[in-house]
Automatic annotation (TrEMBL):
Bilayer-crossing regions: none
Protein's recorded name: LysR family transcriptional regulator
Entry's family note: Belongs to the LysR transcriptional regulatory family.
KW DNA repair (keyword) present: no
Organism: Amycolatopsis oliviviridis
Length: 285
């Protein structure tokens, strides 16, 4: 208001620009003068003019206003940039089978969106989300995830699979939990949600732990090893169809699991991250 009075030479005109009454404007200016201990405006019948002290204060005030404009412009740039990008991390099974469909729908609705997807195991996804290095993550590990908000997006079931020439392919009865636990398996690395789910299911059945035959760093590597006859594995049911794998039933072991979205605890999802979560949780009609 002080700057406008200097430019317009009138408290009334400055008040009109700011959408307030002249008495209210005069009262505010008087308050500023009292707080600063300075007379800033000469008030006459012909109008209002800045005093020498007022001109000095207005010079500083302009710098403050310019700085405020810069702050607001910068904040708008940051907001726009965040609205135009989305950082996502996903564990292997989700990244191979579910996340691409959700991302495709999101991109069709937001053509200018830049999206980065990091594919890693569930432990690493949780770390990335916890540290704020991604906006949202998707995991398949069954345990509690401290520091994160978790939201179920899908359900999955693990299946024991072997190659067509493995002895288990010809079994006419389900495996017992003890048989599975005592057999070395082709497994993912520690930190994988699939491996954690297998271990938890075997412990729940009173057997275990998992005996690794091979430790491999991706779901596709596990599948290929089984097809090649390396040994049995426990993989997502999403990976079984039309891959030359023979499912084997297991008695008394629950291999069901929830697939979850995660983000830092206490933070509300907004923008593209919230849209992606909505797509992930939308059930087919």
């Amino acid at each position: 208001m002080l700057v406008l009075v200097g430019e317009l030479g009138s408290i009334g005109q400055a008040a009109a620009v700011l959408g307030m009454t002249q008495p209210s404007a005069s009262k505010r200016l008087s308050t500023v003068e009292r707080r600063l201990g300075l007379v800033l405006i000469d008030r006459t019948r012909r109008g209002s003019a800045l005093t020498p002290d007022g001109r000095v204060i207005v010079g500083w005030a302009r710098r403050v206003l310019d700085g405020l404009d810069g702050l607001l412009d910068g904040a708008e740039t940051l907001r726009t940039r965040h609205e135009a990008e989305l950082r996502v991390a996903a564990s292997m099974t989700l990244a191979e089978h579910l996340v691409p469909r959700w991302i495709g729908e999101l991109n069709r609705a937001n053509p200018g969106l830049y999206l980065g997807l990091e594919v890693t195991n569930s432990d690493k996804v949780a770390d990335l989300a916890r540290e704020g290095r991604v906006d949202i993550g998707f995991v398949e590990s069954p345990g509690a995830l401290p520091g994160l908000t978790c939201w179920k997006v899908a359900v999955d079931r693990l299946v024991v699979v072997v190659s067509g020439d493995h002895p288990w392919a010809r079994l006419r009865r389900p495996l017992t939990p003890a048989e599975l636990a005592s057999t070395p398996l082709v497994v993912r690395e520690p930190g994988s949600g699939t491996r954690e789910t297998i271990g938890a299911a075997l412990r729940e059945a009173g057997v275990g732990p998992v005996k690794p035959l091979l430790e491999l760093g991706s779901a596709s590597a596990v599948r290929n090893a089984v097809v090649a006859g390396a040994g049995p594995a426990v993989i997502s049911s999403l990976d079984v169809a039309d891959r030359g794998l023979v499912p084997v039933a297991v008695e008394g072991v629950d291999f069901g699991r929830e697939l979850r979205a995660v983000w830092p605890g206490g933070r509300r999802l907004a923008g593209p991250a919230a849209e992606l979560l909505a797509l992930a949780t939308r059930r087919p009609s």
